[in-house]
Structures are given as C-alpha cells and as structure tokens.
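Is heme C placement plausible here? Inputs below.
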Amino acid sequence: MKTICKLILSTVFITSCTTKTEYIPIEGKWIKGTQTEQLKTIENQFRGFDKTMVEVGYRYQELYWGGQDENWEYANYQLEKIEKTIKLGLQRRPKRAQSATHFLEYVIPEVNKAIQAEDKQRFNTNIEMMRTNCTNCHIAERVPTFTVRIPTHRQSPIGN
Ligand code: HEC
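Reply from A.M.:
I modeled the complex. Tokens:
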C-alpha cells in the first residue's frame, strides 16, 4: 500500500513539473492539419447513414436467404450485424434515432424470435413485417422512393 502511495505521489509530482511543450500535430500520409481538421477528415471518411444502409441492405438479403435455407445460425449472425450497424450509424447520425426506435425495439426482436424458434413460416411473416418497416423508416426519413422488396436473387456465395 505504502509503495503504491509513493508511486502515485511521485507520478503526480513528475507530471506537474514537466514543462508544457508546443503542440505539433502528428500527421498521417493523407490525414493532415490540426487535430480538429484531422477529426473532421476521419468523420467524413466514416460517412453517414448511407454507408450504414448499404451494409443493412446487403445483410437484410443475407438474413432472408439464411432463413430460406433454415441456416438459423447464419440468419442470427446477420440480424445481430444489422442491429449493430444501425446502432453505430445512429452514433454518427443521432437525428435518425427517433425513426429507428420501433425498428430496434420491436422489429428486430420479432425477427429474432422466429430465428430462435427455428420457425420458417414465422420467419417469413416477420421478414415481411421487417420489409414494411424498412420502407416506413425511409418514408419518415424523407427517402420515400426507397421501397424495400423481398429479395429474389442471391448475392453472396453463402447458401445451401
Ligand atoms: C432509421 C431509419 C431507417 C431504417 C430502419 C432503415 N433505413 Fe434504409 N435508409 C434510411 C435513410 C435515411 C437512407 C438514406 C441515407 C442517406 O441519404 O444518407 C436509407 C437508404 C437505404 C438504402 C440505399 C443505400 C445506398 O446509399 O445505396 C438501402 C439499400 C436501404 N436503406 C435499405 C434498408 C433496409 C433493407 C432496411 C431494413 C432492413 C432499412 N433500409 C431500414 C433510413 C432507414
């Protein structure tokens, strides 16, 4: 205990004695400028909700085919990633949060119930409900022409 106290005290002392050095920004290969400018560059590169949606669009299709194949582990994986992707997207675009509430609190859990029950019929009912809610959010978020359909073709090489 004594040694720990001494260690803390000496650290405080050393820190308080060091003189303030002039701030020189560390720059990357292409992330340049002041710290604020660099953060802005990084934030822009992360993009907004469009990137979220490109990912959600892909994962929604994979979720659908996972359910058709009754590959419940894969469907579960995709549903978890959809939830994570939307939550991360909302961190970048908090103004979209209100429209996402119903989707996160009701739609995703309902689809999850069908997956856990390994019930294809229930899954298909709930995925239809999800599809409608995807489109509803697009209407709420003023991209009303983005109508979400039930997938007809597989994109990824994963399947039976
Ligand atoms: C929180 C509301 C919300 C929910 C829920 C939502 N979307 Fe979106 N989606 C948006 C917004 C907003 C845009 C336009 C993004 C922009 O303009 O930056 C969009 C755009 C898209 C795009 C076009 C992306 C692109 O740039 O090419 C696709 C595809 C898409 N959504 C699919 C879906 C699917 C599939 C679901 C359901 C599984 C879904 N969305 C659920 C809000 C939502």
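Short version: The mean pLDDT is 91.
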